[in-house]
Amino acid sequence: MLRGGAHRCRGICPAVMVICLHMDELSKEYVISFFEKTLAMHGDRPESVGWNARGQPLHYEALLDIGNIEGAKILDFGCGRGDFYRFLKDRNISVDYTGLDINERMISLAREKFPECRFGVLDSEKNELTEEFDYIFLCGVFNLKVQGLDETIKETIERLFRRTRIALAFNALSAHNPRKDCALHYIFPEEIFQFAVKNLSPTVSLRHDRMAYDFVIFVYREINGFSV
Predict the structure, then answer these.
(1) Could you read off the pLDDT of 64-96 as tens digits, one per residue?
(2) Is 5 helix (H, G, I), strand (E, B) or coil?
């Protein structure tokens, strides 16, 4: 295991770092345009990907409830500027990191900031992801409201879980929030939980207690037993 911020990352291989994301072209263009505008407005700050300086690390901390990822091979799906990698690096958590995002400008910035890592641009016209990872993380990926997103979410996490060796973590905004923003997408956590148990694995954990009206789901390949 590597410690002290020594992270193992390799060069990108475009042939395998592609996934088929079922999002129509109009929705795809809207998402790309939205985050290009926020990047131009806020620059290299959490606000450029819809977070703030306080909330972003709290979401990342919640993802670490998945278990010990030290030395693991991970995929950050919807990585933006690579902030999750920086979060792990600052905490001396060594991982073999790969980041994917739909926005080329975000990926270009991530590559400049973290040249030691693998980053790739999603292409909905090409093949499904073929590489396997120990852990796959999706943090705030589906918070922006676009048409047909509920089905896209289910299809995406189902496809990604096929390439997950240990566990997948997914967070989202809870539909139980009585004060909703019309530009954001909210999900009933119990519906995603039921979908995961039925279609992915019977070993699923749901946390609705880390932040107000924000939830995390962990889907494991095997029983996540207690440590004694």
Answers:
(1) 999 999 999 999 998 988 999 999 999 999 999
(2) coil
CA distance 114 to 84: 11
Neighbours of 41 (CB within 10 A): 10
Long-range contacts of 38-41 (CB under 8 A, 24+ apart): 39/103, 39/105, 39/106, 39/109
What beta strand segments (E) does 70-110 contain? 73-77, 96-101
Domain boundaries, the chain: 25-220
Distance CA 216, CA 52 (A): 18
Q: What is the pLDDT of residues 46-62, one digit of tens each?
A: 554 455 556 678 889 99
| Token pair for 99 | 């980041």
Q: Is the distance from CB of 170 to CB of 217 less than 8 angstroms? A: yes
The tokens of 179 are what? 């004060």
Are 192 and 152 in contact by the 8 Å Cβ rule? The answer is no
Strand 204-211 and strand 133-138: pairing?
unpaired
Q: CATH class for domain 25-220? A: alpha beta
Q: What is the Cα–Cα distance from 13 to 18, expressed in whole angstroms?
A: 9
26-40, 106-120, 169-183: least confidently modelled range: 26-40
Residue 11 — pLDDT band, cuts 50, 70, 90? very low
Structure tokens at 36: 């290009």
* CB distance 24 to 30 below 8 Å: no
- pLDDT tens-place string over residues 153-168: 999 999 999 999 999 9
